[in-house]
Every structure is written in structure tokens, then in C-alpha cells.
Specification:
Keywords: Ubl conjugation pathway. By secondary structure, the chain is an alpha/beta fold. Helices cover 39% and strands 18% of the residues. Helix 14 runs parallel beside helix 15 (381-391). The relative contact order is 0.05.
């Protein structure tokens, strides 16, 4: 072919021009907003593809709580996105990180009012909403700002509640009246909510005895399809357990309960209430998370033998109490749940007592245990004993995470011993064990 005929030939089209839309959408799915906006300017086809619903179903919007020029446009960008693509949203997560002053909380409230209002008008497919760690009981949230935000949120939930499947308001820290008002919005005009997952951890402010509130129990009675429920122990009562048994026994599979030292947790719950719920909700698993609630007497009042407990987490957050002993909990209380326990997490300061033997026996007694994590004062050889038991088939751990506290700055000796243990059981560890062990100076 001569040079003239080559010039008359049309140039080969790029492979991108013939790429099927489904492939193009998959490529665009990995791009950030800036790259997507640039890609939309390439050609008409790419611009049309950029409006595909599947590209905008998930959204996480983060607002910085600190005054900064870098983050100044966050509020405007969030509104722009919702107006442009909000109708496609199915899963929305909103974060407001540690607001610095009332000016920023006011700006957040105004932005959220506009954002939720626009979504309420244009979106009919939102399935999950997460707004975590607002901490509305802090002083930066003035009463007028807080009331306006709660009003906007409640109005939005009244509109979207008919198809909202997941709601996460962890860390909102509301009063009982405010919290129940928001919950009631989910069942507005229907007296029943379709939500299947509800996260109310730290939803109410600390020190509130929510379990004694008839208003809260009435609000929870509107939920009839719960699969997973997360809340604090200061919300648990016989009435709540009866409501869950009556309205959610056929669906309820998981209850996550947090018990914090600053939350009231002295209420009496009858074992028969738990037994009745466990009998009707056959697949129910209960997970407990304790923050600085470590004394045996308190734990024994809460951890009743009728509860189908799957996991227990006990954390003292480095606090040391020479009058406190972990031994009764390890020897007398936790083995009660040896037939159901699958996960154990411990973080405590036991500098005044050795617990290696008790912990080892507890692991051996819980035949379903597959996850064990501990941060405590331990002998380095404790790890070797666990691995030896694993090798002999006495336990079936899939995860072993150990932080061994020491009273010395230097941990060279412990590190050397741990390397020897790893070399000895390398084959076992590498085959089927998520293994992490470290010596850590605790001064």
C-alpha cells in the first residue's frame, strides 16, 4: 500500500470506544469523584455512562469538625452530590468528626437539613443510613442546633422509614425523649417498622436508666422484623425481651450488648425472660462487650446462664485495682457458657495475680471457641501451651492474638523466646491460624 492510500485510511478506533457499557461501568466504579468528573468530559457515551445508577448506590460523606481551608468545601460538595446523584443512593454513611465549636455544628445542621430534605424529595430506594458518633450531649451542640437537627432527621425518617432496612445511630447520645422521638419516626403512620438491623450503641447519653422508660419499650415494640439489634445494657429490661420475643422471634439472630461502667447496669433481669426469648428465637446469638465492668458480682448479675452467649469481651482499659480478682470470673462464671462461646476478648491489668493456668483451662473447656484475644500480664510460655494444645487437637482456634505485658522496658528476652516458639510451631501456625503475639512493656 502506498503512502497516499495509507493517509486515506480511517485511523483504528481505540478499544475503549467499543468497550461494552457493563465493562465501562465496572472501570468507573473504581474511580474517585475527581477522576469520574474528568472521565465524563471525554465523550457523550462516557458522560451517559457516568449517570448509571450502580455507580452511585454507595456513598460515605465525611465532614471535618475542625476549621480548615482544605475542608471548607466539604459541605457544598455534599449538597452538590446529593442534588446530582442522590436519587440513586441506596446506602449512605455520614461522618462528622469531633466538631470543634458551635459554628461548625451549626453549619453541619444547616447542611444536613438541606441534604435530608433533598433526599426525601428525590430518593425512594435508600436502604441503609449510618450517622455515627455525633455526641449530641457535648456543649458544642447548643440546644437550638441540636433540636433543629433532630427535627430534620425525624422528618426524613418519617418519609424513608417505609423502606429503610438498616439504621446506625451509634454514639448519638440523646435524651430518652429525643431518642424515642427519632425511633418513632421509623414507624410513622404504620405503627410498624420494616428495619431489620438497628444499631443503638451509645444512642442514649451516659447515666440514663433507659430500661425503666415505658416510652422506650413502646418505641421498640414497633419493630417486627429485626435480625440484628445493638444497644447498651442500660436499655435491657424484661419488657424489652418480651417485646422482642413477641414481635421478632422468627427473625432475630443477633443481639450485641455493650455494658459501660458509667451506664446504669444494676437492674434485675429474670433468667426466664432470656430463656423464653432463646426458646422462641432458635437462632439467637448474644454478644457482650464490657467496658471497665470487671468485678465478678456485677458480671454474675448480667451474664445469666439462660443467655445463648456467643462472644464476651472484657476490657478494663489499663485500670488496675489490687482488690479486684479476675480468677472467679474465669473459673466459676465463664465456663457456664462453654457450650456456646465462640469468641473471647480480654484486656485487663492483672499485675497482682497470675492467670495463665485459669485462661488455659477456660480455652480447653470451650470446645466451640475459635477466636481468642488477650492483652494481659502473662508468662511467655503461655503461648506455647496454647499451641501445644492446638497441635494435640484439644482446642480448635482459628485466631490467636496475644499481647504479653511486662514490667520492663526491654523485651529482648521475651522476643527471643517467642521467636523460638514460632519456629517450633511454624507449620501449625502457617497452616490454619491467624496468629499475632507480641511482648509489650507496661510501665
Amino acid at each position: 500500500m502506498d503512502e497516499e492510500s495509507q493517509l486515506l485510511q480511517p485511523p483504528d478506533q481505540s478499544c475503549w470506544a467499543t468497550l461494552p457499557d457493563v465493562c465501562l461501568r465496572r472501570v468507573f466504579w473504581w474511580l474517585g469523584d475527581r477522576d469520574r468528573s474528568r472521565a465524563a468530559l471525554v465523550c457523550r457515551k462516557w458522560n451517559q455512562t457516568m449517570y448509571s445508577a450502580e455507580l452511585w448506590r454507595y456513598r460515605s460523606i465525611t465532614f471535618s469538625g475542625r476549621p480548615s481551608r482544605v475542608h471548607a468545601s466539604e459541605f457544598e460538595s455534599a449538597l452538590w452530590y446529593v442534588k446530582k446523584f442522590g436519587r440513586y443512593l441506596e446506602h449512605l454513611e455520614i461522618k462528622f468528626l469531633n466538631p470543634y465549636n458551635a459554628v461548625l455544628t451549626k453549619k453541619f445542621q444547616i447542611t444536613m437539613r438541606a441534604l435530608l430534605s433533598w433526599l426525601g424529595k428525590t430518593n425512594n430506594r435508600l436502604k441503609s443510613l449510618s450517622i455515627q458518633h455525633l455526641e449530641l450531649d457535648r456543649l458544642v451542640w447548643r440546644n437550638s442546633i441540636k433540636s433543629s437537627f433532630i427535627k430534620s432527621l425525624s422528618f426524613f425518617l418519617k418519609k424513608m422509614g417505609k423502606h429503610l432496612d438498616y439504621l446506625n445511630l451509634k454514639g448519638a447520645r440523646l435524651t430518652v425523649e429525643q431518642g424515642c422521638h427519632v425511633l418513632n419516626s421509623l414507624s410513622y403512620l404504620r405503627n410498624e417498622s420494616v428495619a431489620s438491623e438497628l444499631n443503638l450503641e451509645d444512642y442514649f447519653s451516659h447515666h440514663l436508666a433507659v430500661y425503666s422508660s415505658p416510652r422506650f419499650n413502646k418505641a421498640m415494640a414497633a419493630f417486627h422484623q429485626l435480625v440484628s439489634l445493638t444497644l447498651n445494657y442500660n436499655c435491657i429490661s424484661d419488657e424489652l425481651l418480651e417485646n422482642l420475643c413477641e414481635n421478632n422471634a422468627g427473625t432475630l439472630g443477633t443481639i450485641n450488648i455493650k455494658c459501660h461502667i458509667h451506664d446504669p447496669h444494676g437492674q434485675v433481669i429474670w433468667g426466664m425472660s432470656w430463656a423464653n426469648l432463646a426458646r422462641h428465637a432458635a437462632n439467637l446469638k448474644v454478644n457482650f462487650f464490657f467496658e471497665r465492668v470487671m468485678k465478678y458480682e456485677r458480671l454474675a448479675r448480667i451474664l445469666l446462664q439462660e443467655i445463648p452467649i456467643r462472644s464476651i469481651s472484657l476490657r478494663s482499659c489499663y485500670f488496675s485495682d489490687p482488690d479486684w480478682s479476675m480468677r472467679p470470673t474465669l473459673v466459676d462464671l465463664l465456663p457456664t457458657f462453654r457450650h456456646t462461646l465462640q469468641k473471647l476478648t480480654f484486656e485487663f491489668n492483672n499485675n497482682h495475680e497470675s492467670l495463665d493456668e485459669e485462661l488455659h483451662l477456660l480455652i480447653l473447656s470451650c470446645r466451640k471457641l475459635f477466636y481468642f484475644k488477650i492483652w494481659a500480664f502473662l508468662d511467655v510460655r503461655f503461648v506455647e501451651r496454647i499451641l501445644k494444645s492446638q497441635e494435640e487437637g484439644q482446642c480448635a482456634l482459628r485466631t490467636l492474638k496475644v499481647r504479653i505485658y511486662t514490667n520492663r522496658y526491654e523485651t529482648n528476652e521475651e522476643d527471643r523466646t517467642l521467636r523460638e516458639i514460632y519456629r517450633k510451631y511454624r507449620k501449625l501456625i502457617n497452616s490454619n491460624l491467624n496468629y499475632f503475639v507480641i511482648a509489650y512493656p507496661m510501665m
